[in-house]
Amino acid sequence: MTEKEYDALVKDLAPKSPIWKDCLNAFWIGGLICALGQLIMNGYLALGLSETNAGMAMSMTLVALSALLTGFSLYDNIAKYGGAGTLVPITGFANAVAAPAVEFKTEGFVLGVGAKMFTIAGPVIVYGVSASVVYGFIYWITTLF
Predict the structure, then answer these.
(1) Is 52 within a domain?
(2) Is residue 138 part of a domain?
(3) How many domains does the chain contain in total?
(4) pLDDT digits over 93-125, tens only?
């Protein structure tokens, strides 16, 4: 069997992806997460926090909720249905940190949780910090002249 024949066979046998349904689910699940974030922020604003502090408290609340839902294996169920909509940056990042920690907890706190916690999120942190340093340096150079 040639490579082209194999590719054709795989294409015929693979289940068809309901792309429009998946996009719609991602859109409304992501929208619900963002609406929840806005409701939480409005609640913090109503409690008298400044807009900056309310935004910070809302972010911390969404991270905590995401980690909690991941710990109870509920975030994965939402992600199976909502797909990319659950990758709203802050909740998706919290899930990416918490999921390996939960998965490898049987290997202990050091070699399991500690070593595996940043397997997915680690490269994001490294490249995010590196990019911010490069962009900051470019910004600094351009403001000198």
Answers:
(1) yes
(2) no
(3) 1
(4) 888 888 887 877 777 777 777 777 777 777 877
Listed residue (73, 75, 90) closest to 37, CA to CA: 90
Q: Is residue 44 part of a domain?
A: yes
Per-residue pLDDT of 37-73, as tens digits, reads 999 999 999 999 999 999 999 999 999 999 999 989 8
Contact at 8 Å (CB) between 104 and 113?
yes
Distance (Å) of CA 58 to CA 12, 32, 39, 130: 47, 15, 9, 26
Q: Is residue 140 part of a domain?
A: no
Which residues have CB under 8 Å from 45's CB, separation 6+? 51, 54
Token pair 């990019």 is at which residue? 131
| Whole-structure pTM value | 0.72
Buried b (16+ CB within 10 A) or exposed e, 56-88: ebbbebbbebbbebbeeeebeebbeebbebbbb
